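B., you asked whether I could sanity-check this one before it goes into the benchmark set. Here's the sequence:
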Amino acid sequence: MSRAALLQMTSGIDPAANAATLVDAVAQARAGGAAMLFTPEMSGLVDGNRERALPHYRLEGEDPVLAAVRDAAAKQGIWVHLGSLAVLREDGKLANRAFVIDDAGEVRTRYDKMHLFDVDVPGSAESHRESAHTVPGHDARVIETPVGKLGLAVCYDMRFPELFRVMSRQGAEMFVVPSAFTVPTGRAHWEALLRARAIENLCGLIAPAQWGVHPSGRETFGDSMIIDHWGKVLARMPGGTGCVVADIDPAARIDARTRFPALEHRVIYNT
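And here's what the prediction gave me:
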């Protein structure tokens, strides 16, 4: 049995303030007995004003938010999945990059969001073109962590079940989907998509989210959740900010996969 904590936050336009929130959450998670903390997409900065945000983008090795979280993880002796940061690449473009940080503060792996959010949100005036400034990743990532073998995704990735199937075949036992979901799509699809990805792969799933009206004016849906391999919601935070925890039971997942061996019944289809 291992305990996971997730943070729901309302990231603003000041990376230093966001870093302070993250450092405090690391301490809260450790005090709550968690082996690992999970934070939302764009934990370091949410700002739709490109000109204002530009001075805050840093190369990975120079990013102050990443440095602060690494230091906090080492100080508290806890693993952290830093949901994502907008990281400057050597070519001057951005990556929407997630980090897995161990309890010594070392970055164990990175994942660049593969599916970029280029949509006009139905039922609203919202329009997003993530690819205008962000370069997608190309590789799935699964890594051993205190909560099990963890498959990494970010937000819009959740709409592409083939990615989760690939990670399942690579041995994933848990998924993480940090997000900054829009309110209209959150109301319509958030819980359904999360539970589906968990159920169809018999994997637990942790979904830390941004919530509320951000200083930049953007509004996000929230409703962060920890879900088990059977699709049961173990913990959730519909609104507000802070941490929630849940205990992950690997024995129950193993038993379910033995009794209900759907993963062994997969067929490779001719297309």
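One thing to flag: The radius of gyration is 17 Å. Otherwise nothing jumped out at me.
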